[in-house]
Design goal:
By secondary structure, the protein is of the alpha+beta class. The strands form 2 sheets. Strands 4, 5, 6, 7 and 8 form a 5-stranded antiparallel beta sheet that branches. A 3-stranded antiparallel beta sheet has the order 1-3-2, covered by helices on one side. A hairpin with a 5-residue loop joins strand 2 and strand 3. The longest helix is centred in the N-terminal third of the chain and has 14 residues. The chain is globular. The relative contact order is 0.17.
């Protein structure tokens, strides 16, 4: 049996976005990400907004949970996700009020915001008049 080395990640959301970015650059159809509730919430937002086609929760031989994201393709096998950026980092948290939430590429992209009512897009947070921590941009 193969022994797997465990790694400690100080910023799991940045790790998730980096795995997605690397998979897109390598032209993979999907990517496996270690699972957590926050990452699953972000993945569901990506699916709702049309950036990924499928989310599958799986476990490996050791019993660790993973999330498999299958990327959505546009015409010409181009990925729908053009870019990802982590905004609020462990060393510098970025918060915004509901009326100060950023619009990514004038509304063509989304900002993922962690609010008191859960993780949601900037559009949903504006509708519900909620501010919070701006986690990432996706366009």
């Amino acid at each position: 049996m193969k022994k797997v080395k465990s790694t400690v990640v100080t910023d799991p959301i940045a790790d998730m976005l980096t795995r997605v970015r690397n998979a897109i650059m390598a032209r993979h159809d999907d990517v496996m990400i270690p699972a957590s509730k926050t990452k699953l919430a972000i993945a569901k937002i990506m699916a709702d907004e049309g950036y990924v086609t499928a989310i599958e929760e799986t476990k490996d031989e050791a019993g660790r949970a993973f999330i498999r994201l299958t990327f959505k393709l546009s015409e010409g096998r181009q990925r729908v996700i053009q870019g990802l950026r982590r905004i609020s980092k462990p060393g510098l948290r970025v918060y915004a009020k509901s009326d100060d939430l950023p619009k990514v590429l004038s509304g063509l992209g989304i900002a993922i915001v962690s609010t008191s009512k859960g993780i949601m897009t900037d559009k949903d947070a504006r509708e519900k008049n909620l501010g919070g921590e701006v986690l990432a941009y996706i366009w």
